[in-house]
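Researcher: Quick test of sequence recovery. Tokens follow.
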């Protein structure tokens, strides 16, 4: 294994994590360090000898620091092909020493955007010299090692101790470097394009492996664009096997629904559709009511709790087989109760983020939309027949939230604060109603229903009313709305129009 020794390093970093310790190891290996600005100040303060960029170039910084490393003496030292006699001659003629190591991380542009700084301040956080240095070093990785993350400092210092960097290491570092500049540019593009729709830049880095995709023959991994604010990024896996592709998809759907429900609610999902949702006087009661909706489908599902998981609820859950339990917090007693279920994944998660982008793939293309959100409460709803009773209205609110999180066509039947029948993913709306009613059985008497889209014909209302449903909430907007309303009046069904559809494909 051939190693390339390093005698000279350029360091220019915004993130000073691990900088001083790393620089001390370089000095111990008799490597000259060239630096400028805040990096030079930090190293000098720590007593580490450092050559100023201005001393190396013979030119002082300009424009308040905007121009310092953008200089032929610096870039020739990075870009020189040390196997090319003409390049070596050029360096010798101008008295330029080559760099074997370039250590750069960029102005914190992404953090400035996340912090909501004024536009002028964000513009100042767009790094120019940094990406130029990184790209130059990465292009010339045959001769130069480029480091863009403090996470690599120990590895590089160890390699230097062993005689230098290897070609494989330098190529790996170059791949990481080019991705970092692509990621940085993507963040800038998306900030400048905010509110526009012509351009969207996505630079995705793998966060973790998953065992396989939806099926064992499919490769899969979890990716993020930059530093993710998604709930999963800060979730704690308390126990159980690593999360799979399907676990992540189902847990995300469950957690989004659970977080839209009142505190103390429980949602149970299977294949990203609700098969049980309930509000109760206590969390154990809410779980029992949710499980009772469709016990057959709930088997092997995901349980989301909008509230702390305590031992009494954990005891209820432990009676059944579920894949994942997700909650904002879990007591020590609950952990002990579930610990014997070795394959059960228990997640502690923050609330879902407000990220507004929903991206899906089609054949060699992407469909992009703003993420759907369901309005909690009845503001803007229009009563089209009699006014619903207080109990009906309470159940209609729950049904509307659940149906908004259910695959279309969707009908959700709710009775006494609990979903009792969910018809999801049906090609026909009346078919979805019939499926929901089959699952509800006798519990449909006195229940309410929600539809994610309008009823195109009166048959959906007739089917629901025939089984005892007394109130319905739907978007409205059909050319046959008058027929649908007439059907509801005939059967004394309260019907509310929300004027907002919630298709979910």
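Model:
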């Amino acid at each position: 294994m051939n190693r390339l020794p390093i005698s000279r390093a350029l360091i220019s970093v915004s993130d000073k994590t691990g900088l001083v310790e790393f620089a001390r190891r370089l000095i111990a290996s008799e490597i000259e360090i060239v630096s400028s600005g805040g990096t030079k100040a930090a190293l000098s303060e720590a007593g580490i000898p450092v050559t100023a960029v201005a001393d190396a170039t013979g030119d002082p910084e300009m424009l308040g620091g905007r121009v310092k490393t953008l200089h032929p003496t610096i870039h020739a030292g990075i870009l020189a092909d040390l196997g090319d006699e003409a390049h070596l001659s050029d360096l010798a003629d101008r008295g330029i020493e080559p760099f074997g190591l370039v250590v750069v991380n960029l102005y914190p542009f992404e953090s400035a955007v996340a912090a909501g700084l004024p536009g002028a301040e964000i513009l100042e956080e767009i790094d120019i010299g940094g990406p130029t240095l990184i790209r130059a070093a990465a292009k010339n990785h045959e001769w130069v090692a480029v480091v863009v993350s403090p996470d690599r400092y120990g590895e590089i210092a160890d390699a230097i101790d062993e005689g230098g960097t290897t070609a494989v290491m330098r190529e790996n570092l170059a791949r990481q470097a080019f991705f970092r500049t692509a990621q940085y540019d993507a963040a800038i593009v998306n900030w400048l394009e905010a509110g526009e729709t012509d351009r969207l830049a996505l630079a995705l880095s793998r966060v973790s492996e998953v065992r396989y995709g939806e099926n064992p023959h499919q490769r899969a991994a979890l990716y993020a664009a930059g530093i993710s604010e998604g709930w999963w990024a800060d979730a704690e896996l308390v126990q159980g096997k690593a999360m799979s592709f399907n676990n992540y998809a189902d847990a995300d759907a469950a957690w989004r629904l659970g977080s839209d429900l009142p505190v103390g609610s429980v949602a149970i999902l299977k294949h990203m559709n609700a098969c049980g949702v309930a509000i109760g006087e206590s969390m154990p009661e809410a779980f029992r009511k949710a499980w009772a909706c469709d016990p057959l489908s709930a088997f092997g599902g995901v349980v989301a709790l909008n509230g702390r998981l305590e031992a009494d609820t954990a005891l209820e859950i432990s009676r059944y087989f579920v894949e994942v339990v997700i909650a904002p917090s879990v007591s020590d007693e609950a952990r002990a109760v579930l610990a014997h279920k070795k394959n059960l994944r228990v997640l502690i998660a923050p609330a879902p983020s407000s990220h507004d982008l929903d991206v899906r793939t089609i054949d060699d293309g992407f469909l992009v939309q703003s993420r759907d959100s369901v309005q909690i409460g009845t503001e803007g709803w229009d009563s089209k027949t009699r006014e619903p009773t207080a109990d009906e209205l309470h159940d209609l609110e729950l049904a509307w939230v659940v149906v908004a999180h259910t695959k279309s066509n969707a009908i959700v039947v709710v009775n006494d604060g609990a979903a009792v029948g969910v018809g999801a993913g049906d090609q026909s709306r009346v078919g979805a109603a019939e499926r929901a009613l089959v699952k509800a059985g006798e519990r449909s008497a006195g229940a309410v229903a929600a539809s994610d889209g309008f009823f195109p014909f009166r048959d959906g209302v007739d089917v629901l009313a025939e089984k005892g449903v007394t109130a319905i909430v739907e978007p409205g907007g059909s050319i046959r709305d008058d027929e649908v309303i007439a059907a509801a009046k005939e059967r004394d069904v309260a019907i509310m129009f929300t004027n907002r559809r919630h298709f979910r494909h």
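The chain has a mean pLDDT of 92.
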